[in-house]
Design brief:
- The protein is α/β, with parallel strands linked by helices.
- 27% of the residues lie in helices and 26% in strands.
- The strands form 3 sheets. It has a 6-stranded mixed β-sheet with strand order 9-10-11-6-12-13, with helices on both faces.
- The chain is globular and about 45 Å long.
- The N terminus and C terminus are likely disordered.
């Protein structure tokens, strides 16, 4: 079934959706409409290479209140982005859409080139293998050891026992908790529990790390240590989206900040993409090859 939509209010770009694939065609020399707006929004062409691309995303619930309204932005591979806003601004809802915990009411979401909005149920586990998620409430196995909390993720993917031991030890060294490998999760401090949650999110070597208020329940000193840990993870090449309402924490780092307010993007320094970055190309999105004529 074919479905068409426009990416901007001037009807400058038409996307044609067929199942999970997206393709579009445009001239190698871009033309402009009567308002001088390029007929191709560069965010589309760049979206193939971005880790996250959102196009006019809406999310509403049974009460018909929009939790998210007309969200459009992209996050490059290897980028570190703070997602900020007051409680109820839509940060958690947006993250849940990215790892397909929920579906958008309208709009398109691409994560590492995959169209999450129309993804089949059987494809979701493969998407989540590429994504690590750190929850505010940790979601640990409280009566199990630190080792067990990390190992069970790898067991699900059929990793051998010897490799599990090696990878758990390496990731615990990264978060500086190797000395707690046999400790029960419930007996750890709050900061240590958060480090275990981060280690679990990283254990499968994800390309994208999503963190939902990971410092929300921690004191300022420990929070700073957690942010430094996320920076080191990002330096190794992992894309990081860090949701927080702690503006003081954000100000201490010179990272991009996307601020939400009442479900809308209130501020994003990269919202405008220069027209001179537009390049002509025909794209068959997801598997990234040209469609048959």
């Amino acid at each position: 079934m074919l479905q068409e939509c426009w990416l901007d209010k001037e009807n400058a770009v038409r996307l044609v959706f067929f199942r999970k694939f997206i393709w579009f065609t445009y001239e190698s020399t871009p033309s402009y409409n009567h308002n001088g707006i390029p007929k191709l929004n560069a965010i589309v062409e760049r979206g193939i290479y971005a880790m996250i691309s959102l196009y006019h995303v809406y999310k509403s619930y049974d009460n018909r209140i929009n939790a998210l309204s007309d969200i459009s932005f992209e996050i490059e591979k290897g980028e570190f982005v703070f997602l900020t806003g007051l409680t109820g601004a839509g940060k958690t809802t947006l993250l849940r859409l990215l790892f397909r915990e929920e579906l958008p009411t309208a709009g398109q979401i691409l994560v590492n080139g995959k169209n999450v909005a129309v993804m089949k149920e059987k494809e979701i586990p493969f998407l989540r293998r590429e994504i690590g998620v750190v929850f505010q409430d940790f979601k640990l196995l409280w009566n199990r050891s630190v080792f067990d909390n990390l190992a069970f993720v790898l067991k699900i993917f059929g990793v051998s026992r010897e490799e599990i031991k090696e990878r758990v030890w390496k990731i615990l060294k990264l978060v500086k908790l190797q000395h707690k490998i046999n400790s029960t999760a419930i007996n750890l401090s709050g900061g240590e529990q958060q480090r275990v949650a981060i280690a679990r999110a990283l254990i499968n070597q994800p390309r994208l790390l999503l963190a939902d208020e990971p410092t929300g329940n921690l004191d300022p000193e420990i929070s700073q240590d957690i942010v430094i840990l996320f920076e080191s993870i990002n330096d190794a090449g992992t894309t990081v989206v860090f949701a927080t309402h702690d503006i003081d924490l954000v100000k201490r780092l010179s990272k991009r900040m996307i601020r939400l307010d009442k479900g809308k993007v209130e501020y994003d320094p990269k919202s405008e993409i220069p027209p001179d970055q537009i390049k002509g190309k025909k794209v068959f999105w997801n598997n990234i090859h040209e469609p048959e004529e």
